[in-house]
Amino acid sequence: MRRLPRSLDDIRGLRAARWIRESTAGQYDRFGPASQREQQDRFIERFGLIDTGLTYQVAQSGTTVWRSATMTQMLAEAKAGGFDLLLAGYSDRWQRNLRRTFELIEDHLHPSGVALVMCDRRILSSDPHDWDELVAEATAAERYTRRLAERVRDGYGAKFEHHSDQGGLPPLGFRRPSEPPCANEIDPDTIGMAVGLFERYALGNISIERLGDETGLEPDRIRYILRNPLYNGWVRRHRGPDEIRRPAPWRANPPVSDDLWERVVAVRLSKTRGGGPRNRGRVDLLGGLLECVCGKHIRSDGRFGITDKIAKLHLEPCEAWGSKARLASTTLEGPLMAQIEGINLDQATIAQVVAATSAGRPIAIDRARLDRQLHDLAQSHAQDEISDEAYLARKRQLRGELAGMEQTTPGLPAQQAVAWLRAFAESWREADVPEAKADLVHAIYEKVVVAGRSFVSARLTPAAYQHGLALALPEAVMARPEGFEPPTI
Fold it and tell me: Residue 118 and residue 109: Cα distance in Å, rounded?
């Protein structure tokens, strides 16, 4: 381990990297980064440091920046010996999370031989005499953020209670009049563009990125619009299980009707691969696929500490998960990967696939899939998760597919099914990046049901069933990595 400097007198000639943080990307257009650079320039010149040219620049809240991809990259290059000092122009630009500040310094930077410097306060993290001041600065930064959040939260709460307004900047299609109470109202000049986004996306044949190219709007802004119930006539406060909704003044005749809203929700759910905080730099192989035996979806929920392991979260207490509601994604990925790697294409399996696809009738498990979809649909309707109109329309569609199964239809050419299976197995062997593997996983799995660490069942996609993959996959696999009971699929 490289020797850490014990005071500012020991840092002359050391290699310095820069840390620049703003809360939002828009702040980069103002004076913030320039001011931070000036502080760093003066510090480098005064103490005779070597500027490595390395700059880690990030736009993220100080309370969550510890789990950003930029932080992960910086720690990796620090461990590799890329620099000796990390310069933060201002003490509160490092981060505003007291716990994570000392975890990163003591568990990662110092063991890598790197010290953190707060240039404006001339604080060196490896100087014992600076420790009290470092603690004070980190505490003050988090205290400021917490108090500011309380004031903002109280203001939004009062506006929600008295004026049914959810606060924040008005989204596309809405405006705030200058006269009090300055509550949201529909903007007749722009609401048409917002409604057009819903109508276009509801067709199901366009991605949000493509929609952004067509309209000139940022994809993240479009995602926010398509998830905002304000367009459907509802104002909300909080998110998740504590969310409160109230009808907006235009609820009786919302810009986005209930039917259009439901269709957009259905399209979003069909395309999603997970929720929770984004995991940049780490591909979520099981995103959007996992469901608990209790019927609740398992969501992605950031990472474990600063590792690259994505956390899988069960939002509500569940006996099947025990006391731990969060698991590492790798715990659940191993068995599923083992099932795919165990695809069997021997002569006996090929003969089964040929017989099933040549019979002119769908594989029996395909009927079970449709029966299960009807059951899930009825359950969602009973829990008021979908409207009566959407329920009846989807039910008619599924009934029609079941009726079609009763008629003998030309089977899929056996050679085509076998070629598809062999091509998939070859693609899996040659997939050398996580993104490619994730695409293949989502191409064959429609839903995976788990009970904590144990796998209960897996539903394949229609294409996978049609080409006989259900006959080639092993029904039970040993868990990998080891350390828990072998689940079955």
Answer: 14
* DSSP state letters, 322-356: TT--EEEHHHHHHHHHHHHHT---SHHHHHHHHHH
Q: Which residues contact 223 (CB under 8 A, 6 or more apart)?
A: 208
Task: Look up residue 48 and give its DSSP letter.
Answer: T
Q: What is the pLDDT of residues 369-424, one digit of tens each?
A: 566 677 767 777 777 777 777 778 778 877 776 676 555 444 456 777 787 788 77
What does the block give as tokens for 222? Answer: 């479009």
Whether residue 33 has a cis bond before it, omega within 30° of 0? no
In the prediction, which pLDDT does 487 show? 34
Work out the angle at residue 441's Cα, subtended by the Cα atoms of residues 435 and 446, and round it to the nearest 5 degrees.
135
Q: What is the pLDDT of residue 105?
A: 93
| C-beta of residue 449 within 8 angstroms of C-beta of residue 314 | no
User: How is 2-29 classified by DSSP, letter by letter?
Assistant: PPPPSSGGG-TT-EEEEEEEESSGGGGG
DSSP, collapsed to helix, strand or coil, labels residue 85 as strand
Q: Which residues of the chain have pLDDT under 50?
A: 26-31, 162, 273-280, 361-365, 408-411, 478-489
Q: How many CB atoms lie within 10 A of CB 213?
A: 11
Residues 6+ apart with CB under 8 A from 188: none
pTM: predicted TM-score of the whole model, two decimal places: 0.40
